[in-house]
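INFO worker-7 received task bundle
INFO bundle size: 2
INFO processing item 0
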Amino acid sequence: MKVLAAMSGGVDSAVAAARAAEAGHEVVGVHMALSKNRDQRRTGSRGCCTVEDASDARRAADRIGIPYYVWDLSDDFHDLVVEDFLTEYAAGRTPNPCVRCNERIKFASLLERATLLGFDAVCTGHYASIRSEGPGGAPSLHRSRNDAKDQSYVLAVMGPEAVGRSLFPLGDFEDKQAVRAEARARGLGVSTKPDSYDICFIADGDTRGFLERSLGEAPGEVVDPDGTVLATHTGTHGYTIGQRKGLGIQHPAPDGRPRYVVDIDPARRQVVVGASELLSTRELHATDVISFEELTEGRPVHAQIRAHGEAVPAVIQQVPAPDAPGSLLQVRLDTPVRGVAPGQTLVLYDGDRVLAAATLERRA
């Protein structure tokens, strides 16, 4: 196959590209330049897709012996990921920008360009597996063998069509050290490069500061569930469901227990805080469902609401009505979970196989 290998400049994508080339595919490496700041530099382990990363990716491609290009996707990234992040926070929701990047950049913009150029598939260094059940069976997305690094949750939004045109060569690695060892054996200089983490377009890790600089101030009140004003704030976008610290409350609750953000109302400019039990729910409601197979009511599943959270046993209570945009997927959990926030991604599993992804709207 003719394969386009997305090379971030890290060890994972370099080993993935090397494995694809070794498997006999005609591989071309491409680095996605996502930052509009051409002078952006990496800060330790923070950030990715910087000038240094592009250079590291080029050296890895040279070592593997494949052609290499840099594609400027900064406009797409800004419009489809960064602006979405800001819009969601301004609306009192909690988005996952890595999910959006995988959906809209790595498996939409990149795959579209790859198709136009005649490539058969896109190869990345994600930790996930693609399998086909039986002869001629449709490919399905599964968890990686490396539970600690599994990325099937953030990949679930790519949908079945993109899965069928993707390669994830790292899915069978049991741990990251094995990947680094293979990189060393292949002579790849990125074998000891630290992993990137946090939000790539907020290189200093100060999410709240980034939101304040981007969205400005919109002062309002911090209240308890009865509406009693406890403090003031400079913008609801500085808060997330489940947050405990930085609430600005100067006196303890009457019962002495900690308070948490339990609701955010941007229209009224209110942040509602309350006891921890107000964060727990067993009912999840979601829209914008992306299914890998037909969902049925009453089906047992496992539901996951965070990238590295636990998948909880659950039952599908309601499936979206066909051709009815905005209709709900409802799931009931066997045990309550805390801190469910609108805007988070819900992923349903059958064992290690992804069944569907959706966007959480509210909790019952």
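INFO item 0 finished
INFO processing item 1
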Amino acid sequence: MTAAHENFAQWCSDELARVEAALNQWIVADAPANLGEPMRYAVLDGGKRLRPLLVLAAAQSAGPLGVPQAEAALRAGCAVELIHAYSLVHDDMPCMDNDVLRRGKPTVHVQFGEAQALLAGDALQALAFELLVPEGRDIPDVMQARLCRQLALAAGYNGMAGGQAIDLASVGKSLTQPQLQQMHKLKTGALLQSSVEMGATCAGITGAALAALRQYGAALGLAFQVIDDVLDVVADSATLGKTAGKDADNDKPTYVSLMGLDAARAYANDLLAEAQLALAGSGLAQPRALAALADMVVRRSH
């Protein structure tokens, strides 16, 4: 196990610095008609970067990476973050959640107008796939294609976009726990699970280890949303960096409204245990960063 994995805080600091530098480089400022400004505003200087960290931790979980595999993992992590950022830009717009605060600052449509926000989101989505297929690099074509497919499946109608459609259609309705889980499996969980699987693709992880990572990613994705619902009730807007109490105000079904606050917290802990159990049986050489990330998701305060 590397020293970086022994010290999770140092590992996070090092990997976050790499991700921030790459995003700063790849999201150019000189797009036509100042489009680069809202693109950079939507992505840089904010966010937990959980998804890139999951990609990198999963890629490194089987042991040291070669140079092409390490570059693929960094590009994949940044690509997932761009998809996540674009989805937030669009979700915050008046036609959907109509929110004014994100990552502790005005949402993109508030800052730049709805048209620029819509185009910035579109451009970030396209840039995500551009990052996965670089010219003149040593990343195998098969790996590039597989990463594109994994990200597309997680972001599309049977993933994040489909989950958001269910969310919008469920306002004011009562959902059963299986219905709520299906919505969040698509809306939030698909991209988180895909982050783990894309990291595995970069490292060539297959078989039982890949199955364990998929189980870990599924449990983590659901735990993330359960805690999101808890924090929407117990935290304030300054802590969250977004509007607190929004789900209740919009009459949206949540784990807290369905189960109650204490039961929702207990459920998140059960999911954390499930994720950790999957890692423990994975046979992976270096799962510590993934284990620490799962713990961070459930213990977080924002």
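INFO item 1 finished
INFO post-check item 1: Strands lie at 101-102, 105-106.
INFO post-check item 1: Residues 16 and 191 are 19 Å apart (CA to CA).
INFO worker-7 idle
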